[in-house]
Design goal:
Length: 178
């Protein structure tokens, strides 16, 4: 309803609105607003150009041939350093296996439990080793080391079990009550 009254008023007084023009003060305020907006636009354009140049530089630097070469050298060093670590852990694993097979005189089933676990770990190790060849990274090396540590843990558990069995058999031999 109020909208209709306003429309009627504007339609009825249209001639009075058309012949009037805004004062110089109004035009001065409009010009001032336009100039301040143009100054702000210039500032935003400068910021956009700066951001574009910075982004271009960073992208170019990341994918430049020298940087890619540095990354390849670092990855090769990671793989080479792992070779020394791998030898160290393989020696420990080999020693523990020999220790387990020295308990061969016991009646406990030696090969059943831990050999299956070691075979599974070995299969996972081979997959990780292939990944290290294709994509050498610290995460893959960490996973390989973790695999080796789990193997050592499995062997340690078996050694503790065998020591317990051996101690139990010795107690049976020396205990006159049995």
């Amino acid at each position: 309803m109020k909208k209709d009254n306003l429309e009627k008023f504007v339609q009825g007084n249209k001639d009075k609105f058309d012949d009037l023009s805004p004062s110089g003060k109004v035009w001065h305020g409009i010009e001032k607003g336009i100039h301040s907006k143009l100054e702000h636009r210039w500032l935003w354009k400068a910021a956009a150009v700066f951001f574009f140049c910075l982004s271009s530089f960073l992208i170019f630097d990341k994918y430049s041939p020298s940087t890619r070469q540095d990354v390849l050298v670092q990855k090769q060093e990671v793989a080479k350093d792992f070779g020394d670590i791998e030898k160290f852990y393989f020696q420990i694993i080999s020693d523990k296996r020999e220790l387990i097979y020295e308990y061969d005189h016991l009646e406990a089933p030696i090969k059943v439990d831990f050999e299956q676990d070691l075979q599974k770990l070995d299969a996972m190790y081979e997959v990780l080793k292939e990944e290290l060849k294709n994509n050498p990274s610290k995460k893959v090396v960490d996973a390989l080391i973790l695999n080796l540590l789990v193997r050592i843990d499995v062997l340690n558990e078996k050694i503790e079990e065998l020591e317990g069995v051996e101690n139990g058999q010795e107690e049976m031999k020396t205990d006159p009550a049995v």
